[in-house]
Fold these 2 entries.
Entry 1:
Amino acid sequence: MNLHVIGTGSKGNAYIIQNDDEALLIECGVKFSESLKALNFNTRKVAGMLISHSHLDHCKHVKDVIKAGIDVFCLKETSDTFGISNHRINHVLPGKTFMVGSFKVAAFDLKHDVPCLGFIVEHSSTGRFCFITDSYYCEYKLPAMNNMIVEANYCDTILKARLDAGEEPSFLRDRVIRSHMSLQTCKQLLQANDLKNVFNIVLIHLSDRNSHALRFQKEIKDLTAKKVTVAENGTVIAFGKTPF
Ligand SMILES: [Zn+2]
Ligand SMILES: [Zn+2]
């Protein structure tokens, strides 16, 4: 399988895990036509879409997804916020496991400023992977992963320097640290988990102002000795169980 990053960050998120026969979509904060292009307009192979939470950079285009006949899996709070009830909407409870086509998905609570889900997904081609974004912390120890998609939104020292220079108002700083994952917390999360079988670490949702992609990539690579990719709009990477 491949991971396609259609969009990442506060301007809009959309991710596709796909091969020729199957696809799992995560988030629809980018115009759905962009995802359709990456799918070669083949919506028949789409098993469904996972949505983490109700912020527009993650779910703005959900009506178009439903119109395309795609099942959506999200919290009730999320669909209540976007005001849609439709037979395509499937409500997910944290701690529960469910099937989306042949993708086995477990949802768990994250720590954001609105209810937000992380996902652990298992599929015979990708192995087990996690999707964790918009969370200032992850309190769970994850089962052994083959691939990881994790937020690294900002760096403590960059944020502090910008605050000291008067470039970042303190209320924005306060919001960021209570809703997004720092590079430092991302490192702790990785260190707290068994990375032995991890093939890819993909860093997502970097802040435009308070991050540094190359440095984040290097620091996580130095820490983990794994293949680390900083997701950008348009990134496509092999997303299998092994490098071979
Ligand atoms: Zn976001
Ligand atoms: Zn958010």
Entry 2:
Amino acid sequence: MSLWLDGASRSYPTLDRDDSADVAVVGAGIAGVATAYFLASAGASVVVLEARGVAEAASGRNAGFLLAGVAENFVAAARRYGEPNALRIWRFTRRTQFLVRALVEEHRIDCALRWNGSDQIAGDDEEWREIEASARRLSSEGVAVSVDPAARSATYAEDGELHPVRWVRGLAAAAVKKGARIYESTRVRAVASGEAHTASGVVHASSVVLCTNAYTAHLAPSRVRPVRGQMLATAAAAPVFARPAYAHRGYRYWRQTSDGRVLVGGWRDTAAVEEVGEEERTTDVIQKQLEAFLRERHVDAAVTHRWAGTMGFSHDALPYIGRIDNGTFMCGGFTGHGMAFGPASAELVAALVRGARHPDADLFDPSR
Ligand SMILES: Cc1cc2nc3c(=O)[nH]c(=O)nc-3n(C[C@H](O)[C@H](O)[C@H](O)COP(=O)(O)OP(=O)(O)OC[C@H]3O[C@@H](n4cnc5c(N)ncnc54)[C@H](O)[C@@H]3O)c2cc1C
């Protein structure tokens, strides 16, 4: 059971009749909830349909890091996307950080938000050279970053961390205040132009937005692939980690919460063939390595929680955001970085649904 979902219960009704709205949003993870929030704030009537409960899938099972950029360091990102686009992607995730700060403050969302920065730690010599060069390059763009050659790491001072379930549920409550209607335990079986069909009713809407991330292919042709990520959490331990850490090109990560719990996740690269699909199960192979990390770092506290979540991977590690059919849009495929990409992505898709332009729409066009 995810640490964040321990003790959490559902609070919205199940759809039990036909309904209508300007926009039907399918999925109530960070992407769906934020999309509903932005659309409702702009005056649209919005219905959110969620098969489980708000933030019970990946959005309630992650590490809660709010990092700028993609999983890879900036040099690797520039190699992949070209430097101008890598900078645009970097700024896009900075937009999420701005939005989180502003929304948490405006709606007084109690989600243990902290801005202690994050450490990017090299796993080998080549990665260290890239991390150093990335820090130099981003520093020249005004990014607050310092390097520690002894630890072969760079500290990005502006990154954040939070309690993901309290954050997404707090934002859901804010969306409801703006007029959005949320239905939980309501699985969408099919979407057609202007309609979302569930077992107990049809929602008629001018636009449908699929915020179903790893599960999108069940509803529409999609290149998003389900990939598993695993974590564990301990009871309170003596202070050992000052800030979230991201190591080995993002495959290994850990943090310590303000109440002392140590969270460790990742190591998916050591079992890449097995760690795919929608099954949210932990495996001995991964969990043993997470435990070995605790021993290596002398974390002396019992493991209290172990869990797995399903991420949606895209073909190029960037999300697919935009129109996929006449009245159907999607916002998903975050490749393990939806807390960092989600709110800015939701703002983008909400703009497109309203017929507005967005300067970053081309970067994330689902047909790219
Ligand atoms: C172990 C782990 C650690 C991670 N750590 C981080 C991190 O530190 N920082 C970060 O940025 N990202 C992290 N991520 C990734 C992040 O959690 C995801 O990218 C993000 O939560 C995706 O949000 P989402 O709203 O797109 O998808 P989800 O949260 O998966 O939400 C999709 C929702 O759609 C619903 N749904 C699907 N199909 C239907 C249907 N037919 N009808 C109705 N509802 C449907 C699902 O029930 C689900 O609630 C991590 C992920 C994992 C698994």
